[in-house]
Amino acid sequence: MATVKASQLFNGPVEIGLRALMILAESHPGALDLQRLVILDYFSVHSADIDGGPPSLHPPGPLRAGEVSIRRGLLEDGLHLFATKGLVSRVVDVSGIRYRAEELAATFLDALSSDYANSLRDRAKWAVDTAGSLSDDEATALLDRTIGRWKTEFVFDEIEE
Description:
The protein has 7 helices and 3 strands.
């Protein structure tokens, strides 16, 4: 039996695909493009970065802002993985390529009962409620403000030490 390395699990296709699936399930029956999924995924794991947001699932770290730039490829891999299982579908139309949770996704997600899965589901709902209906420009601006504020706070913390 093949072993799975921790580096393949954390922020790998399985974890990030599961987060995307939860976001898509909260957006169902709507479909989201990759850029919106990147933004909502960031907000799901770093929810405390937004004023009034719940505690973040992942701890703050100095490379957090850089996560956004690598998240797109990982999300595509994760979405492909869950699409092969019939949980995500790709919608191609005049507005571009978007992704949608399939009906079976809710049943699959309901079977997950760990504290992390429940917290992630809560954060996915919160992220969709908070930024899901924003325009593309508004969602991107919110992400930019969030990351920009965090970068500034990190620089000031470094200077004070």
